[in-house]
Amino acid sequence: MSVDPNAVNSSSGPGLLSRVPVLHWLRTQLFSSPLNTLLTLLTLWLLLATVPAIIDWVFLKSTITATSAQECRKVTGACWAVIVEKHRLILFGVYPYEEQWRPLLATLLLLGVIILSGIRRFWNLSLLVFWLIALTGAAVLMWGGVFGLTHVENSRWGGLPLTLMLSTFGIAFAFPLGIALALGRRSNMPAIKTICIVYIELIRGVPLISLLFMSAVMLPLFLPEGLTIDKLLRAQVAIILFAAAYMAETIRGGLQAIPKGQFEGADSLGLTYWQQTRLIVLPQALKIVIPPLVGLFIALFKDTSLVVIIGIFDLTQAAKAALVDQSWRGFSIEIYVFISAIYFVFCYSMSKYSQSLEKRLATEHQR
Amino acid sequence: MANAIISMQDVNKWYGKFHVLRNINLEVASGERIVICGPSGSGKSTLIRCINRLEEHQKGRIAVEGTEITNDIRHVEAIRRDVGMVFQHFNLFPHLTVLQNLTLGPIWVLKTPKAEAEARAMKYLERVRIAEQASKFPGQLSGGQQQRVAIARSLCMDPKVMLFDEPTSALDPEMVKEVLEVMVKLAEDTGMTMLVVTHEMGFARKVADRVIFMDEGEIIEQNTPDAFFDHPQNERTKLFLSQIIH
Question: How far is B230 from chain A (nearest CA, A)?
Fold first, then answer.
């Protein structure tokens, strides 16, 4: 009797279950043991209970073309028309309506340079130039006052460009500060070490919301008469200082993971402390801590929504403003789903990028 | 000894309360080949690691090429440029290619231009017979290959002294031979001063000018290889030699 070439698992006998690939997969992956069978049935029940309802609400019974709230309320599904109506308020805050192409362009500029930074080919000095161009371009677009653009106070900035700006500058400045703090905490010089420890533990001991509150309310009390620092700038600095403390500890974990032999090998070649740190230690340490570090970046992106406490209009606050409109009240779910989707797109992109970065760096020195 | 390239006088070191080096007196002439052997814990690795300040001695004087080793980092860095070290666990930089491992020191410490550094690196890679692996990463090489790269990396700095800290102890037996061959060739072709901590007595017989036996932090006996192996004087030396197959 010839052996069936399609038999996947000959030891389970020549039954149907082991000869048809799909059934075999079902049997080994989903129903292989009593516990697995129970879990599979439970999951199936959960999916059946929720997914059709969600699809129904999101797609099948929803409307995107309704022109008024009354029409929308007649529909049992989601009212995406409220997004169509309110998307500019949510995305751009109270920026003057006719000038909203400017924050749009600034957002695209920032996104462009961020994406560019992710491509390995551009990891050289020209990247710095691109960043400078993008930052000045974004600043000019947002502020105006030159090139015939009308001046827009930064108290009117809001929505997605503001969230993006706070996060980008936050990460960009907190990262080198975090590296410095991590190295300082490991230093042999007692003064530097103490300063770093005190800073890290103080900042980690307070919530971001209290730092923002202090920056907005308390700091002006300590400044001399007549000296005012822009509120947005103060919030930005608070975010940077906050993030740096957490990044420092994560990076320090990576530094601790470098074997002593690496330092000795570098020492034996005569490399100075800074040469060692820059060429040998940091590249390896940062690669190790990519997962938790990107986690911090993602958390920071979402933490920027706390600036609402000091009256700065970020994406979340803009969404709440959209809800205030009496004629469109009652559609809060749709609006929050919308901004959640925006947050998700950004955070998931960061996450995916970090995965690809890890994979790329790993293939370099594994067989 | 006049013009000793390495001079150690009454060197003492403690790890906390443990006295790891006791009154070490050692003079090494330029071009001399010294093999240091002894039971584990005898302080042999600590001794050579004090020479390039990977360990700090608490008492006594160590001078390399006339420069005394102190807490002054500039002296230490100057000494480290002239003293190369090969480690038991290679200590290659895993995120750099073999070629980059070799050119790192010359480019950043000796300020050699990149092209010249790469040419020199290829020359030494050929000398240790591993030139075809230049663009690979250390993780892709075998232990014997990695150690040969480590030797080439130290040679690229054009040191006056090479320290070897049990270079073959972490290798499989079949790879020990390829590394020892490189070290023998280094001894024969150049006038390099070499201090080798090893258990490979065949190597000692072939290459060493002097064999030093250490036990419990002290230099017990030192002699030419033949005299050392065939006519050991001290009881502890005789005990040690009887325990190792050579």
Answer: 36
